[in-house]
From TrEMBL:
Protein name: DUF1295 domain-containing protein
InterPro entries linked to this entry: UstE-like (IPR010721)
Source organism of the structure: Streptomyces luteolus
A Pfam family of this chain: DUF1295
Transmembrane segment boundaries: 6-32, 39-57, 69-87, 113-133, 145-163
Length: 267
């Protein structure tokens, strides 16, 4: 692990934490003013973009410029696309039922509880999950075939997210589909193309850090945590618990892969 600029990276960790905190506190202030905490979901992608941008500035003089530009750009494209998509999806809607249910059980002040349990927690997760984005920008030397494989995996993930989201939006926009389960396109191969896409994006960004043993070691926890969140935490498991009682969902689940894309099973 010699050659990795540990002192500069340690300073970067603090700057990245501050960037994530600023995004989340600004979002919290706006949410309280509007009485709508669902906008924190928009801040998720913005937070990663802020961390990547701050790291790019802080890593000047360290690491490979091509890798720094690439990692920052890939993170920003993913994060801002996600933020725009969530903002459009939530336009004109009230509070997210998840946050309504959580805040209904809040002890004491609802906003203070939301600050602790939603905004600060998400800010901490942004900092943790973004470790590959931070560490990769301090890796010296050019991009290896492994790094380019990471770019390809990132691109696959972004494609699954963007195409899956667009297919679902078109499906919901058709009044004839009201009450029906989306089981077309990518959604016929996996019940969660957007979560699978997220999985690919973050393992791809991790591979961009793997040209440096120290960067790989310090950031391995990040894609592991993201994978657990997507499959066991607030992603797949929570959504399926919400969907399981809908008519037709059990049949859909029986013929469609739960996460990794596979050809639909025939009954």
């Amino acid at each position: 692990m010699n050659g990795f600029p540990w002192a500069a990276f340690a300073l970067n960790l603090g700057l990245a934490a501050a960037a994530a905190l600023v995004v989340m506190l600004g979002t919290f202030a706006l949410a309280v003013r509007r009485g709508l905490h669902r906008i924190v979901d928009i801040a998720w992608g913005v937070g990663f973009t802020a961390v990547a941008s701050v790291t790019f500035a802080a890593s000047t003089g360290h690491g490979d410029l091509e890798r720094r530009v690439l990692v920052t750009a890939l993170t920003a494209v993913w994060g801002l696309r996600l933020a725009v998509h969530i903002a459009r999806r939530g336009r004109g809607h009230g509070e997210d039922p998840r946050y309504e249910a959580m805040l209904a059980k809040a002890p004491g002040n609802r906003n203070a509880y939301a600050l602790r349990m939603v905004y600060l927690l998400q800010g901490a997760l942004v900092w943790l999950v973004s470790l590959p984005v931070q560490a990769a920008q301090y890796v010296p030397g050019g991009l290896s075939p492994l790094a380019w494989a990471g770019v390809a995996l990132w691109a696959l993930g972004l494609c699954f997210e963007a195409v899956g989201d667009a297919q679902l939006a078109r499906f919901k926009a058709d009044p004839a589909n009201k009450g029906r389960i989306m089981d077309r396109g990518l959604w016929s191969w996996t019940r969660h193309p957007n979560y699978f896409g997220d999985f690919c994006v973050w393992w791809g960004l991790f591979l961009l850090a793997c040209d440096g043993p120290a960067a790989a070691a310090v950031s391995l926890i990040s894609p592991v945590v993201m994978s657990l969140l997507l499959t066991q935490g607030s992603g797949k498991r929570l959504l399926e618990r919400h969907m399981r009682d809908r008519p037709g969902y059990a049949e859909y689940a029986a013929r469609t892969s739960g996460f990794f894309p596979l050809p639909p099973r025939r009954g």
